[in-house]
Amino acid sequence: MIPGFGSLMQDVLWCFSQVKGTIDVGVTDADIISTVEFNHTGELLATGDKGGRVVIFQREQESKNQPHRRGEYNVYSTFQSHEPEFDYLKSLEIEEKINKIRWLPQQNAAYFLLSTNDKTVKLWKVSERDKRPEGYNLKDEDGRLRDPSMITMLRVPVLRPMDLMVEATPRRVFANAHTYHINSISVNSDYETYMSADDLRINLWNFEITNQSFNIVDIKPANMEELTEVITAAEFHPHHCNTFVYSSSKGTIRLCDMRTAALCDRHAKFFEEPEDPSNRSFFSEIISSISDVKFSHSGRYIMTRDYLTVKVWDLNMENRPIETYQVHDYLRSKLCSLYENDCIFDKFECVWNGSDSVIMTGSYNNFFRMFDRNTKRDVTLEASRENSKPRAILKPRKVCVGGKRRKDEISVDSLDFSKKILHTAWHPSENIIAVAATNNLYIFQDKVN
């Protein structure tokens, strides 16, 4: 358990900065954040939005004068990752929205990340430049070619200091491999390959080869009328490069081993919780669909998120989860209206903390939930502009289902379903979290003494 985590569960998360946009009437759909991801050290935080932009934030370095400032994130680089396209063969518009971002471990001074929209994955290199060469022989300082007859002496080019510039350049474009919308990308632990998953297929790519991928899962039936489920999320094991999992809209998880066959249609393990017949309803199949699947950092557990719960599965036990956490059970009575306004199809993500002892996921009304696996305590916190003053303490929120409402509680009937936290991220080693609430990014950290 991370030292000082006890305070985190006792309402002392601090809001350090709200760094993306404001909730104004003039906010466009393109400003809505669609993914959030820390890099492997936690020094950088990337967000993608529906407008195809990637914004990278860098953590402030600690200073002796202001040690508490360590933890603030400032804009480091912004670039347009994807543009809207049109598939003329299918008469389909391809959105520029960034579905997922995944960082690669840093090998040198530059950073590398993968970003994807519905169809195309791109590998970006983000690098710094603080020197420029001067004193060319064949060019002048403006870059124009010099008259060869005027060159009378040989000059040795030198590097001169310049203002720091952060450049983002696309190094690889992996396209034309998916018929359906990409919902997941995952970097393998060998760091030579990665996979991309859409509704019916999962492809394995080599980072050096852009025009060819290997299809490792294909669940498309010969007759599409027989289609009963789709792939909703997929991820590689953090340590074993041959193992990966994928979840389905039927609430099942399949663990596959690439050593058994080239096409992993036959799973090595199949995780499914038997349904309680007494709880069966019209909405059962919809709310059991898994929207996110994540391996723990240790690789021993899998966490899944469906509409109402977060479940933790042990890789050695397939018949039921070892832990089930109710995220917003008070919405069971509201499923009919949530179906009518399409909220029941929202895809919430879930994340582990660095030590796998706490899990976090989002809810409505800009609430997000944390569950301590050791103490079984949980807390509901709110990401809102009202309580986002720097160094302000977040107070736990409670939802009242019926009867008499206390002063600090909020009624389930007054929840705002247009404000939802679908995307969250947790620093790999510290109690720093990033929460995307519509077009705002909130960064909170544990109490600093």
Which terms would index this structure?
single chain, 449 residues, mainly beta, Methylamine Dehydrogenase, Chain H, 5-stranded antiparallel β-sheet, 4-stranded antiparallel β-sheet, 3 helices, disordered N terminus, PP2A_PR55_CS, repeat
Q: Your description of this structure?
A:
- The structure is a single chain.
- The chain is mostly beta strands and 449 residues long.
- It has a domain at 18-51 and 173-446: YVTN repeat-like/Quinoprotein amine dehydrogenase (Methylamine Dehydrogenase, Chain H), CATH 2.130.10.10.
- The protein has helices at residues 5-9, 284-288, 335-340, and strands at 13-18, 33-38, 44-49, 53-59, 73-80, 85-87, 92-94, 100-103, 111-116, 121-134, 158-174, 184-187, 193-197, 201-206, 214-218, 231-236, 243-248, 253-257, 269-271, 292-295, 301-305, 309-314, 323-326, 350-352, 358-362, 367-372, 378-382, 392-393, 398-400, 409-411, 423-426, 432-437, 440-446.
- The strands form nine sheets. Strands 28-1-33-32-31 form a five-stranded antiparallel sheet.
- A hairpin with a 3-residue loop joins strand 21 and strand 22 (309-314).
- The radius of gyration is 24 Å and the shape is globular.
- GO terms for molecular function: protein phosphatase regulator activity.
- One of its GO terms (cellular component) is protein phosphatase type 2A complex.
- Belongs to the phosphatase 2A regulatory subunit B family.
Strand and helix layout:
Layout: H1 5-9, E1 13-18, E2 33-38, E3 44-49, E4 53-59, E5 73-80, E6 85-87, E7 92-94, E8 100-103, E9 111-116, E10 121-134, E11 158-174, E12 184-187, E13 193-197, E14 201-206, E15 214-218, E16 231-236, E17 243-248, E18 253-257, E19 269-271, H2 284-288, E20 292-295, E21 301-305, E22 309-314, E23 323-326, H3 335-340, E24 350-352, E25 358-362, E26 367-372, E27 378-382, E28 392-393, E29 398-400, E30 409-411, E31 423-426, E32 432-437, E33 440-446
Parallel strand pairs: 29-30
Antiparallel strand pairs: 1-28, 1-33, 2-3, 3-4, 4-5, 6-7, 8-9, 9-10, 10-11, 12-13, 13-14, 14-15, 16-17, 17-18, 18-19, 20-21, 21-22, 22-23, 24-25, 25-26, 26-27, 31-32, 32-33
